[in-house]
């Protein structure tokens, strides 16, 4: 078999990122690029004993690392951030090759890694607890946050590198070790991140084994999930995966941080700035070919502006450049694989059977050289049927119509998932109602921007079937530490709490 240009490019980039030739022609894991669907090479899965050995090494590394002062741990993450800056374009290109993201989004994903490293370095001097008033004289009560242990990270294909960094950058400054099982669809980017983490570790004097990658499918993830030496499993992927992982970790009383599927909506109110709404909707629904957990899947539009909005959206959709994500002019790259195309096609068939009307798109797009490229689709639905309540991981948006804001919010919240949401309105009452306790039930709620494209400063995650986890900014670092409450008696007496007498 002759190697395609894309495979050659992937191998060259891997070399520049410090990954020694990882391929084995007899390997069971096939690395493919969604750009042309061709094989880049094969890798060998780790056996459960190898996963266990990686955890052994991580435990040893953790035992050293937890004794290093947090601001000194921050130097390791600073080195990682510097290496990511240096290699941003190469790693971004690898994301493009392996996940099919357009160049700008591939680089943007690496920028997000750099941003979380910056945030984590700052945090390394801010891992603070509280001092709490005590009822006992001559006593002091406080809380401390200590390193937790080995963090298992399981990640999805669509953010092949950023999800690891959201977890790892915080975990490292918090004093933890990380064992990462990336998606079996994006193994090369994971190897590249690991090479950069190892180099950062050498520069900063971090212990070996602090960062590890284990490769394979579900069974390899399960080995991490079931290992009692892994106190926290942070798992990003489908709700189906979360339902499998959560009870297994709970059975051994471990913790999970779950970042699962979304079914994100935008309400478009009568007062909306429609130009802004169209731009926000198109980016959110079509960016990353609809393969973000925060991608827009439902537009809930007021009946008075529906026709105008649909006319503008259809025009915008029909002018979208679809093609190889390596071409800088492309805005819509490929779906990850043929199954994703089949799911997109089946969802449109079901939606139209339910009475939906295909407004635009929905077909395979003609792009030379293989890969699963589609014309992003809009389906105007009479109701929020089961298919609308299901996450289809593709550029497919359903349009629902409303009359009152209460009705819009009920439709909005009438799905099992609760990740991200938005409203386009210039009416402050509507905006504030949407953000209030009786508004959106999601972990992320926006006004006059779409639901996708979060920054790392805020906590990221969602409710209900999205799993309830929060990663990235705000106080998400607390997930990676254990809290200890301390009471210190500096008196000569021994008063008991609640007035208890024991003498
Ligand atoms: P997926 O669920 O198929 O796989 C995700 C990861 O879980 C992979 O590494 C996979 O090998 C592993 N896995 C699957 N079953 C497992 C099990 N039983 N035990 C241990 N590991 C297991 O998801 P995907 O197709 O890669 O990604 C798309 C999905 O991820 C979408 O639903 C999307 O919304 C979601 N996602 C969510 C977020 C978020 O932050 N909420 C971010 C990205 C993607």
Brief write-up:
This protein is of the alpha/beta class and 503 residues long. The chain folds into two domains: 6-260 and 467-485, Aldehyde Dehydrogenase, Chain A, domain 1; 268-447, 3-Layer(aba) Sandwich (Aldehyde Dehydrogenase, Chain A, domain 2), CATH 3.40.309.10. 38% of the residues lie in helices and 19% in strands.
Question: How would you describe this protein?
Answer:
- The chain has 503 residues and is α/β, with parallel strands linked by helices.
- The chain has two domains: 6-260 and 467-485, Aldehyde Dehydrogenase, Chain A, domain 1, CATH 3.40.605; 268-447, Aldehyde Dehydrogenase, Chain A, domain 2 (3-Layer(aba) Sandwich), CATH 3.40.309.
- The chain has 14 helices and 21 strands.
- The protein has helices spanning 5-16, 48-65, 70-86, 88-99, 103-123, 162-173, 187-204, 218-225, 239-251, 274-286, 306-318, 338-353, 405-413, 428-435, and strands at residues 29-32, 39-43, 131-132, 139-147, 150-154, 177-181, 211-213, 232-236, 255-259, 264-268, 296-302, 357-360, 377-380, 396-402, 417-418, 420-424, 444-447, 459-460, 463-464, 471-472, 481-489.
- A seven-stranded mixed sheet has the order 12-13-14-11-10-16-17, with helices on both faces. A five-stranded parallel sheet has the order 7-6-5-8-9, sandwiched between helices. Strands 3-4-21 form a three-stranded antiparallel sheet, with no helix packed on it.
- The longest helix is centred in the N-terminal third of the chain and has 21 residues, at 103-123.
- The chain is globular.
- The mean pLDDT is 97.
- Bound molecules: nicotinamide-adenine-dinucleotide.
- Nicotinamide-adenine-dinucleotide binds next to α8 and α9.
- Residues 30-482 form the Aldehyde dehydrogenase domain.
- The active site is at 259.
- Belongs to the aldehyde dehydrogenase family.
- This is aldehyde dehydrogenase (NAD(+)).
